[in-house]
Design goal:
The structure holds 2 protein chains of 2 kinds.
Chain A: H1 5-22, H2 28-38, H3 45-75, H4 80-109
Helix pairs in contact in A: 1-2, 1-3, 1-4, 2-3, 3-4
Chain B: H1 8-35, H2 46-77, H3 84-107, H4 110-116, H5 134-156, H6 162-178, H7 188-223, H8 227-247, H9 261-271, H10 274-289, H11 298-320, H12 325-331, H13 335-364, H14 372-409, H15 416-422, H16 424-447
Helix pairs in contact in B: 1-2, 1-3, 1-16, 2-3, 2-5, 2-13, 3-5, 5-6, 6-7, 7-8, 7-10, 7-11, 7-13, 8-9, 8-10, 10-11, 11-13, 11-14, 13-14, 14-15, 14-16
The chains are: A mainly alpha, B mainly alpha.
């Protein structure tokens, strides 16, 4: 099925809100992403990118906050080593998610899935 | 190769790679001196090794930029270089002056070097990265002026493109901002202003223009995407780079005796500094995604994408990590700065020069791209150098965070030297990563000599 302009626009918006949630608009970006998801239909490219965005952000939240919290709980708030691990880990992994979301945005702009079938 | 005079770039690139090897060798020596303080002492003291490491970096990047400009400008301007002979003459002058300066650092005490080069007539020596004797600095200005004249005349008398004009703007900025290195006020705070007007306005200002234009040139060539699309991106990127980078200089003025307003200006504008790098990543991804041809030079495409991502990571993210004034209160001048410096220089400038070399060197050797085997070896070198640089950065970040905590944040802070002994493990791991980087660089050089069947561009659709 050929992707129409509205779907393409919505796919781009979904990818953009996913990126915004990961960068300068956490939570607000995710709510906007959920709103976009509600407008999509199964099988369409906009649904694909909205879903991908939701997945990226949920995994990012889990990987970043849960693991960081675990590190703090296990390592202790007052231990310098805890902060060595938490800050380094958070910065690197967060950036990896941002770069991934950037690639998803570029794919959404061209109406493509991450991997072409 | 469309124009004969483009081949001058080869000279510059070979010199750049040679000096790059020197830089990394001294980096490995330095890394070892962090954990074995008397290693190679008194032959190569730490301060001398550091000076050679950083100066070689600057000099080889300048060779790389010049080589890149000599390759790019004739093709963009659709004419031969204005004066190939001047370019060759300047190459030898720059190389000899650079080599003599490095030998000067290594063979005589720095104070003696200052004396024999008559630094007292116009004192400019003794500042980090700008340690060159005054006479060398004058030489750099002459070479830069001749270079800009040559490039400028080629551009102005030929086809003018956004890429070549952005490059020219960056190169003129590079030369102009270097002039601040001749002003050396006695007031240390004032001195820092002018010192940063060279260092910061180079790496977080005009060099970004050079980087963006080189990246745009290679991406046009390897992807076949319309020039108009790439030029629009270029405008936005350079505008963001200048808007954020110029006043972003303020982030160097925190906590050194400057007025408090710099904390606001520096924090706000440097918070914007990741944006041009973010956009460069988006730009590179977008252009590669929309590519209209499968260029046989896969290695050059990999370097181009790698440049965008690593520059964002090193310059953008790792810069932002410690750029806000309240954070910088603790992190100023710690290993976190070293972590940022390493990845930013590698990601933004080393990689863009290697991107240019990767794209142009095979063409200058009469091929569209290096043979498949050579490209595989080159891509191995890409991953070895890039991954080891990520680890160097992570280990230095770890060292920096521990340093901040133990030396500055803790209720019972310990001394600088005591802290250094506590972070020694990170320095060892950094040294191992540095050795892997050196191996990657050797593999990179080997890739130029790997023989194989020539690869050709697939016919356009």
């Amino acid at each position: 099925m050929k992707t129409d302009e509205t779907q393409l626009k919505r796919a781009s918006d979904a990818a953009l809100t996913s990126l915004l949630n990961l960068t300068i608009l956490p939570v607000i970006g995710f709510i906007a992403l959920l709103l976009i998801y509600r407008k999509t239909r199964p099988g369409d490219i906009d649904r694909y990118h909205a879903l991908l965005g939701i997945q990226i952000n949920i995994i990012a939240a889990a990987v970043l906050f849960l693991v960081s919290t675990l590190m703090i709980l296990l390592g202790g708030f007052d231990s310098p080593w805890t902060w060595v691990y938490v800050i380094t880990y958070f910065t690197l992994v967060h950036t990896v998610f941002i770069v991934f979301a950037l690639w998803a945005l570029v794919r959404a702009w061209s109406g493509d899935k991450l991997k072409q079938a | 190769m469309k124009y004969e005079s483009q081949s001058i770039a080869k000279l510059y690139f070979i010199a750049a790679i040679g000096l790059f090897v020197g830089q990394i060798l001294f980096g490995v020596i330095l890394g070892l001196q962090y954990v074995m303080g008397d290693f190679l002492f008194p032959e190569i003291p730490f301060n001398v090794a550091r000076m050679v490491h950083t100066n070689l970096l600057i000099v080889w990047l300048l060779f790389g930029f010049m080589g890149a400009a000599y390759y790019l400008v004739p093709e963009e301007s659709e004419r031969e270089l204005y004066s190939p002979k001047l370019a060759i003459l300047m190459f030898w002058i720059f190389l000899v002056a650079g080599a003599l300066t490095i030998l000067g650092y290594l063979l005589v005490p720095y104070a003696t070097l200052a004396e024999i080069t008559m630094n007292d007539l116009l004192p400019t020596m003794g500042r980090e990265f700008l340690e060159q004797p005054t006479i060398t600095k004058i030489g750099i200005v002459i070479v830069a002026l001749a270079f800009i004249f040559n490039i400028g005349m080629t551009i102005l008398t030929g086809r003018k493109t956004v890429i070549s004009l952005v490059l020219l703007t960056g190169l003129v900025g590079l030369a102009v901002f270097f002039l601040f290195s001749f002003y050396n006020p006695e007031n240390l705070v004032l001195d820092k202003y002018f010192w940063w007007f060279v260092v910061h306005l180079w790496v977080e200002g005009v060099w970004e223009l050079i980087m963006a234009s080189l990246l745009a040139f290679v991406l046009i060539k390897v992807t076949g995407v319309d020039r108009e699309v790439i030029e629009k991106w270029l405008y936005i990127i350079i505008a963001m780079a200048l808007i954020s980078g110029l006043i972003g200089t303020g982030h160097h003025f925190f906590w050194i005796g400057t007025p408090d307003y710099w904390q606001w200006l520096g924090s706000i504008f440097s918070a914007l500094e990741p944006i041009p790098f973010f956009m460069m990543t988006l730009f590179a991804f977008n252009v590669v995604n929309k590519r209209r041809r499968e260029h046989p030079n896969k290695a050059a495409t990999l370097w181009a994408l790698g440049t965008a991502v690593m520059a964002f990571l090193g310059a953008g993210v790792w810069g932002f990590l410690h750029t806000l004034a309240p954070v910088n209160f603790y992190t100023h001048g710690t290993q976190i700065t070293a972590a940022h410096g390493h990845m930013a220089f590698y990601g933004a400038y080393v990689m863009v020069v290697l991107t240019m070399i990767s794209y142009s060197m095979p063409i200058m050797r009469g091929q569209q791209a290096a043979n498949a085997k050579a490209q595989i070896v080159e891509m191995w070198s890409f991953w070895l150098m890039t991954v080891s640089m990520v680890f160097i950065t992570l280990f230095l970040t770890g060292a920096g965070i521990l340093q901040v905590y133990l030396q500055r944040y803790s209720d019972t802070p310990i001394s600088f030297m005591e802290t250094q002994s506590k972070v020694e493990m990170f320095y060892w791991m950094r040294e191992i990563a540095g050795l892997v980087f050196l191996i990657g660089l050797i593999v990179y050089i080997v890739s130029f000599f790997v023989k194989g069947e020539e690869v050709k561009m697939a016919e356009a659709e």
